[in-house]
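Extended Data, record PNT domain-containing protein
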Amino acid sequence: MSADPSLWSADHVRQWLEWAVKEYGLPEVDVSLFHSIDGKELCKMSKDDVQRLTSSYTADILLSHLHYLRE
């Protein structure tokens, strides 16, 4: 898996989500809702976009980690 999230496949996004769920204890994430989202699409998503798929708290955690990875 590339270190650059914008190059991830949909499967890489799923793997990252599964890792984040375990790492940060985010039980309310339904990984299947992200099934068609690749890294390029994920990196374009706003907080509102992510909140449509999960809670506000979880969206903050995921987007914070994604921002960290993109630096």
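Summary. The mean pLDDT is 94.
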